[in-house]
Amino acid sequence: MDQSYDLLTGILRFSAYFGISLVLLIAFKYLYALVTPQDEWKLIREDKNTAAAIGFGGAILGFAIALGGAASNSVSLVDFGTWAVIALIAQLLAFAIIRFLFMPRIVSRIEDGEISAGVMLAATTISVGVLNAACMSY
Length: 138
Hints:
The chain is mostly helical. It has helices at 2-35, 40-45, 50-73, 77-102, 106-111, 115-135. The radius of gyration is 17 Å and the shape is elongated.
């Protein structure tokens, strides 16, 4: 009986963490698109801009990596939510740092379809996600 209870408890916890993760991932996609001056959705869907898809995909992947770190290191759903918000802020800050400090022309370069700009944005945001995940420990 204890095994069945443990299994059910585990499935419920998994469902809660996974469901919240999906909601946060979708929220991140919309927030990131709102914060960036370019319209990623239009660039990707209508203009078929590969640089935008690479950069946006990297940001989503970086946040997902950070969410994974938050989920695996949290002690409760509240703890997970707190670290997820911190990860979200860190990912948005990463874009701001790239845009205003390291590559001031990144927005226009991505709008122009420069693959190298999309790759650098993706690499940076994925790196921040990995660092985020690694630093989320007690």
